[in-house]
Amino acid sequence: xxxxxxxxxxxxxxxxxxxxxxxxxxxxxxxxxxxxxxxxxxxxxxxxxxxxxxxxxxxxxxxxxxxxxxxxxxxxxxxxxxxxxxxxxxxxxxxxxxxxxxxxxxxxxxxxxxxxxxxxxxxxxxxxxxxxxxxxxxxxxxxxxxxxxxxxxxxxxxxxxxxxxxxxxxxxxxxxxxxxxxxxxxxxxxxxxxxxxxxxxxxxxxxxxxxxxxxxxxxxxxxxxxxxxxxxxxxxxxxxxxxxxxxxxxxxxxxxxxxxxxxxxxxxxxxxxxxxxxxxxxxxxxxxxxxxxxxxxxxxxxxx
Amino acid sequence: xxxxxxxxxxxxxxxxxxxxxxxxxxxxxxxxxxxxxxxxxxxxxxxxxxxxxxxxxxxxxxxxxxxxxxxxxxxxxxxxxxxxxxxxxxxxxxxxxxxxxxxxxxxxxxxxxxxxxxxxxxxxxxxxxxxxxxxxxxxxxxxxxxxxxxxxxxxxxxxxxxxxxxxxxxxxxxxxxxxxxxxxxxxxxxxxxxxxxxxxxxxxxxxxxxxxxxxxxxxxxxxxxxxxxxxxxxxxxxxxxxxxxxxxxxxxxxxxxxxxxxxxxxxxxxxxxxxxxxxxxxxxxxxxxxxxxxxxxxxxxxxxxxxxxxxxxxxxxxxxxxxxxxxxxxxxxxxxxxxxxxxxxxxxxxxxxxxxxxxxxxxxxxxxxxxxxxxxxxxxxxxxxxxxxxxxxxxxxxxxxxxxxxxxxxxxxxxxxxxxxxxxxxxxxxxxxxxxxxxxxxxxxxxxxxxxxxxxxxxxxxxxxxxxxxxxxxxxxxxxxxxxxxxxxxxxxxxxxxxxxxxxxxxxxxxxxxxxxxxxxxxxxxxxxxxxxxxx
Lengths: 304, 536
Hints:
The complex is a heterodimer. Chain A is an all-alpha fold.
């Protein structure tokens, strides 16, 4: 297990390096620069700006400079937000996105597995149909439609929850729901399918024959094997939550790092985009690793 | 028993998680505020609150509240004394002397001196500051030379004659200098804190400012909060201002409806009829110093042919566009400089008053003369930056051209920065969408975009007569003669049809009836010091 961990971590380094190199050159290949605006700058000012940010150096030299700084933990200054460094921007935005993402994933797993399990246990009865209908809706409605509807109902008309911003746990309720609901739907479907399959297997029949109650059968025996497909799905689910957070953060005005991805690209804020790319790269690599570890925990046949 | 322990632990974990979820408790709880805090939507995140680095409208709005320049704009956007109590200008119009107020104070209590302004102007021009407005005051002696690094910043024509007297020397008389000095980039800067904090200077706790408010908090991506500067000479009605940076217009509208905002930054155009019907008392629409136009790249066919340009301009029904497509009260534009620009009587396209049938007949004749007709239809490319509104407008105008002139237009939408780069390079553009908003209330800021050496001139228009008129106007000390020269220049540009003006902007936002002191003005500048809460 230890050997496996070390190998995986070592393997992550070339992956990250490739990611950084590709991102670095790709974003600079896009037409338009960080200082372009409708009120164009006089040429001498633009020259000053480019010099200040080393954009007048040849690309390989800029790349070497960037990687060197990165090795020392310096992500560079933001080109767009001139009072802040990328490290500061990511550091202030990260807790917000992390809370949002983790809460959404937690809600998605708990609610999704719960709903899917109930649907599997009451297969083809009204409860099952209700859950699956909800799942269909959740999968079909994009979160940029869902979020404004939630705001309209709960914030504007009912006034129960804030319409945006940060400040209290109440501020995160609607964004978390908006982000989690599509995933709840997917996870419910997957759980229902895999739970149904597990419930019809031999060892469950044996457990029932021994006289165990429904609850014990499901919670102590059926849940673990049924979760394996759900764990597989967690990889893409987390990716969806990460990308979905861009929309949700923008609609609810949350200061997370999701916006930096899109805004950074549109602003040609090279350093900010690179910082977010590196960050997301690390997150996905770590998550994939954790998913693989979870397999080992759930399925005794999997050993590294 | 074990089950209960497990339940309890899970409950504990959930409760702790919930608390952590909410983040740190808010510094200001709106619920119990006897203090009056104005919550205003402020558009996209400001790129900087350093007066010399701020570039966008959102950033300037905050800077205007934090800092006070030699002059300021009042609630109606008229120029008023600011940090300077009075000023005098020499007979030749080239030397201005400003007397600073005695009670001017920084937010740390120290007095505002002429040296602060001297330091600020030098820093503005300094190439190492890389300010986008380094050459904004280009009529000041040696500003252009210092901005390129050819001259030291100490060579610029600004001198401190004692603690409270500032002298500014100009290359050419600039009667609207007070108007220019009200711009946020002409704010003074607190040298000691800049030297102490360097790049961290524009942060809450570090930023020392001389205006009615002080920077109290800045959560990037969420809001900026400013509290009253205790050393400012007049206490504003508000105790604090919270600028919320909500990028999505619809979200901003929802938050206004939910009572979380007192005034918005804008209104989503698509929701305008609904807003007008449901929030009539809060809706504020007013003329704004900006123009929306299509530019013609005259360096490439087919728009190098003046007849083609004139025909295209004749065929567009601007009134129809402002009624049906934009529909908020914009004024159809038959010129480049908006009406209401200070002291200026705009020029106009000659044919705007003619009935449309006559215009279309003329247009078709011109196109035929240029060699286009039913068997050789004119083919055009129209580029605009991605956006539903720009697309609707482009479709409408392409439709007019097609229906009335048989012109085939290809519509291309591009990301904003790509479009800007293409406009500047002039290699691929034919017709492109553009706009211009005035930095200050004067016709010159609009006419400068067509100067031959202007970076923004994507039309390729280069007329020595036009540039000559602009240069003479820049040196003309007599205001009325100057305005006439500018008007002649505008008429010249319009006559050449290098651009197709469409409409003049309006500012549009929602202001809660509980807010008092808000006055519509053409600069769309609404400093928080004039605002307060009262009986609406």
